[in-house]
Design a protein that fits this description.
Layout lengths: L2 H4 L2 E5 L5 H13 L4 E5 L1 H10 L8 H11 L7 E4 L17 E7 L1 H8 L6 H11 L3 E6 L6 H12 L3 E2 L13 H15 L17
Parallel strand pairs: 1-2, 1-4, 2-3, 4-5, 5-6
Helix pairs in contact: 2-8, 5-7
Length: about 210
């Protein structure tokens, strides 16, 4: 694992459908002893309630304690910030985070980042990643895509963001929804430079 990957990963959850992707990614990062800075929008909290059976508290401190206990993570590995916590280190380019993943990413968040908005901590953190030329992965979850969505993706891709729509593959013969989720999470982990064993790569033999 490279030195940059050992630095905290920022994981931002926004209000698009796809909470299982974010929850699985968070689980995998914590299991890998990867420090995580977590941001959850209000809309994302609503989606979490609809798409999971988890009773996750909304206050950042309570959410941090809940996820730490739920995933049995080491104390201090996870830090949760509020969406308007402007004193958070990730609001500045001097912070020590190496990468950021917005998963799932709404097209509204996509547009805000593409236009350099910083109306909340998620948008500001993404803006910082771009200006500091650090890795920003945006797991966009929407279909169909309008010309506006596509132009925003192109604009962000040109300045270094990785646009990674939540499009699972089927060549590895998934048997469950969890398999489909793992495919997308595996690709995110690979782009973060973190080893994964969730799915096999193209060309690898099917396990007997």
């Amino acid at each position: 694992m490279s030195e940059s990957v050992k630095r905290p990963v920022i994981l931002a959850m926004t209000g698009a459908s796809g909470a299982p992707y974010a929850l699985r990614l968070l689980q995998c990062l914590l299991e890998k002893q990867q420090p995580v800075y977590l941001l959850v929008s209000k809309a994302a909290q609503m989606v979490l309630q609809m798409e999971s059976e988890l009773d996750i508290p909304s206050r950042p401190a309570d959410m941090q304690a809940w996820f730490t206990e739920y995933y049995q993570a080491d104390p201090g590995l996870l830090t949760v910030f509020g969406k308007e916590q402007w004193t958070a280190p990730i609001a500045s380019g001097s912070h020590n985070a190496g990468h950021m993943v917005i998963c799932p990413c709404t097209t509204g968040t996509l547009a805000a980042v593409a236009n350099g908005n910083s109306d909340n901590l998620i948008e500001r953190a993404a803006d910082v990643m771009l200006k500091e030329q650090r890795k920003l992965i945006m797991v966009v979850r929407e279909m169909p895509l309008s010309v506006i969505h596509l132009e925003n993706m192109l604009r962000l891709s040109r300045v270094g963001a990785t646009i990674m729509p939540a499009n699972p593959g089927f060549y590895y013969q998934p048997q469950s929804v969890s398999d489909l989720v793992d495919f997308v999470v595996a690709r995110i982990l690979e782009h973060l430079g973190i080893e994964q064993s969730l799915t096999r790569s193209w060309g690898e033999p099917v396990p007997e």
